[in-house]
Structures are given as C-alpha cells and as structure tokens.
Amino acid sequence: MGPIIGMSPDKKAESPGSQGVCGAGTLPEAESASSPMATSLDRIGPAGAGGSRTEPEDDELTNLNWLHENLLQNFTLGGPEAQPCRGPLFDIEGSISSPHGHSLSSSSTSSVSSGSPGGERDPLKSKPPFSFSLLIYMAIEQSPSKSLPVKDIYGWILEHFPYFSSAPTGWKNSVRHNLSLNKCFRKVERSLGKTNGKGSLWCVHPEFRPTLMQALKKLHFPNAHAFYTPPASPPSASSPPRHLFPLEQGYSMKESDFDAATAMMLLKSASEQNIDPCDQEGPIDLSRRDLVVVSRDPKQDHTYSSSLVSHSQQQPPRLAAHEEQDRSAAHAAAALSGHTVIRSLPSAKRARRDPRAELDEELKEAAGSLLHLAGIRTSLGASRRKSRKLNSK
DNA sequence: ACCGCGATAAACAGGC
DNA sequence: CGCCTGTTTATCGCGG
C-alpha cells in the first residue's frame, strides 16, 4: 500500500539478541524506528518533541521527551537497581499476577506467568502479564513519535519481554492481529517521499489512550482507577496528587515506584499532547506532516476494540469528568457502535488546545514534584527533576 | 451454561 | 519467489 518508507532495511527488528543492549536508555528498535520517522513524524509538535532525542535544543521538550523515553523504558518498578531493559516488567508481573485478579489479561496471565506454577518462574521467560493490546500500546507510546511500524513494535516487545524471543513466532501474528482489529490502534502512512521500509506506522488512537492507560494501570494497580488522575485535569504543581498514595499500600510496591508510575502517566499525558501523530485533529496536522490516516472501515467493529473499550467504559476512564472524557466516551461509544469517529471532535478539542501549554507545564511540574518527593533519581542528573521509572504498573 | 475477552492459528491478498 | 504486512475468520481457554 502506499508509500513505504522509513524502515532501515539493515535493521532486523526481531533480532532477539538486541535485548540487554538497551542500556544507554535507548531502544535500538524503537530508535531505529524513530529515526526514519524523525523526518516526518518526529517533527510533529511545536518543537519537534520527538527529534529532541538528539537535539538538545528545546530544553523543556527535551526534558519531557527524555523523561518520556526513559520512564517508559524503565516502565516499571524495580527501582534504580532494576535493569532498565528487562527486569522491571517482570517484577511487575510477579506482583500483579498475585492475589488481585485482573480481568484484563487474565487468561494470558494465568496461562503464562504461571508458566512455572511452582512459583519459580524465570522472569525472563515467563509471558508478560500484559495483553497484546497493552504491549503494543506501551511500545507505541514509548516511541518519540508515538508511532511505530509493526516491525519496531515487535522489536520493542522482544526487547522488553525476552519471553517472546523464545516464543513461537505466532505472537507476531497476534500483534498484527491486534493492530488490525483493535480500534485503539490506528494506521498511519509513512510520509510520502521516503520509501524505504514496508508497511505503515501504527499509533494509538487518542480517544482510546485513556482507555489503554486505564487498562494498564488497572493491570498494575487493580485499584488504580481510584487514584487515576485524568490528563485533562492535571494536578496543580503546588499540590501533587498525594491522594494517590494510599492505594498501593496493599501491594508490594514501594511508594516511590507508585509515584513514579503516576508521574509517568502524567508526563505521558502531557507530552503526548504534543506529538501524537494520531492526536491531530482535522486535516491540519495530518496533511501538514504528510501523514495520512487510513481510516478504518466503520464496519469493522471487532470485539477486541470494543472489549477494551467497554472495559474502561465501565469504569470510564475516571478521567475526570471533563470535556476530554466526554469526547472519549463519545468516541468510544461510537467505536462500539461500529463507527470510527476519528476527527469529528470539533471545537472541544480545539478549545482545549489553547491551554495545552499550561497543562503541559502543570503536568510536568506536578510530575516533577512527585518524582522529587518520591526521591526518585534521574539519570539525567540533579539538574533535572524528572525521573525515569515508570512503573506503570 | 452462557458470554465476553484475549490468545492463537491459519488463510489470504497485496506490496516490496 | 520469498518475506513482510495487514486483514479476516475461526477456535480455544479462562473468568465473571
């Protein structure tokens, strides 16, 4: 289909060997994926948040981006000592696959993480407790440009979940299957002009992001919804969401981890508003970036998407009762009804765009405070109060 | 027992 | 021609 580009032919996303090499805080695969896109997608956003990875020009955005990447990378608990690449996720698994059941990936969780029933499970070899949807979501979200080609999604998964490196290749099929069926994901064509690489880029449908995030949190913190702080209503910098703490006490997590996770979410929420290629309302940005959203057949109302949606719909992304949520709900509902409304949101969003900068600022500050309070350190040095650790769990 | 959800397998088409 | 990508259908297991 269309113009394909961006993928460097030389890099093999599925090289399992890549794992363990993520040290530098960069994801080989993701990075490779982003570079090509950097030409188009990464430029998205006021200051090309995505490209900041190498361009130290925009400090704030860079910070945000850096955080974004690193947080996501370390995505979980595990603390500083945890291996940036793989460990954490599995730690999580350990804690979540516990007593608290999660509906989300129950089947997979039980079937996999319990791979070694006896309790002795090789963290690196046990299947992650995340559903493919979430894995894909994480992979995409962690990319600077918020979009990845399937190949890089594979790569991300392989890198963070070594389990798949030894798993039969069927999982790739599942990934593709998910991308296609799950309404949460949208296909975006690569910018015209570049033709290296196959396939399209996939991004998270902005309207479903809260849903996915919610699902992710639920998975990590079964009761997460209770502390979920909607992106749309960021806590004020002066008053970090302390109310978030209580919940995880019942868990084996450390408060700091929790905070980090929360902060990550906040940061994500904030940053994503700047670069998400899918979050472009109207033809404006899309056309501007040479991006073309391949609309999904409205008829396609697969259970996957609806399921995920309904999941969070039942607990509507407690994302605050704001327009944001209304929109989400509306869209989700529409999606459920078989209509893929992607850009029918009129002024609501536009109106929201104004305060974006403010929100972003607040979010960043709040997150920073949170992390700071949590004593989470950042590899960026003391100068930055941002931390990495994302126990999104 | 039923249903929803997620995982998995497989077939197929189209592009590179 | 082989591989990759993307779509679609079917089936199975699990949990509510």
UniProtKB/TrEMBL annotation:
<keyword id="KW-0805">Transcription regulation</keyword>
<keyword id="KW-0539">Nucleus</keyword>
<dbReference type="InterPro" id="IPR036390">
    <property type="entry name" value="WH_DNA-bd_sf"/>
</dbReference>
<dbReference type="InterPro" id="IPR047119">
    <property type="entry name" value="FOXN2/3-like"/>
</dbReference>
<feature type="domain" description="Fork-head">
    <location>
        <begin position="127"/>
        <end position="207"/>
    </location>
</feature>
<dbReference type="InterPro" id="IPR030456">
    <property type="entry name" value="TF_fork_head_CS_2"/>
</dbReference>
<dbReference type="GO" id="GO:0005634">
    <property type="term" value="C:nucleus"/>
</dbReference>
<feature type="compositionally biased region" description="Low complexity">
    <location>
        <begin position="94"/>
        <end position="115"/>
    </location>
</feature>
<keyword id="KW-0238">DNA-binding</keyword>
<feature type="compositionally biased region" description="Polar residues">
    <location>
        <begin position="303"/>
        <end position="316"/>
    </location>
</feature>
<dbReference type="InterPro" id="IPR047403">
    <property type="entry name" value="FH_FOXN2"/>
</dbReference>
<feature type="region of interest" description="Disordered">
    <location>
        <begin position="86"/>
        <end position="126"/>
    </location>
</feature>
<dbReference type="Pfam" id="PF00250">
    <property type="entry name" value="Forkhead"/>
</dbReference>
<feature type="region of interest" description="Disordered">
    <location>
        <begin position="1"/>
        <end position="59"/>
    </location>
</feature>
<dbReference type="InterPro" id="IPR001766">
    <property type="entry name" value="Fork_head_dom"/>
</dbReference>
<protein>
    <submittedName>
        <fullName>Forkhead box protein N2-like</fullName>
    </submittedName>
</protein>
<dbReference type="GO" id="GO:0000987">
    <property type="term" value="F:cis-regulatory region sequence-specific DNA binding"/>
</dbReference>
<keyword id="KW-0804">Transcription</keyword>
<feature type="region of interest" description="Disordered">
    <location>
        <begin position="297"/>
        <end position="328"/>
    </location>
</feature>
<dbReference type="GO" id="GO:0003700">
    <property type="term" value="F:DNA-binding transcription factor activity"/>
</dbReference>
<feature type="DNA-binding region" description="Fork-head">
    <location>
        <begin position="127"/>
        <end position="207"/>
    </location>
</feature>
<dbReference type="InterPro" id="IPR018122">
    <property type="entry name" value="TF_fork_head_CS_1"/>
</dbReference>
<dbReference type="InterPro" id="IPR036388">
    <property type="entry name" value="WH-like_DNA-bd_sf"/>
</dbReference>
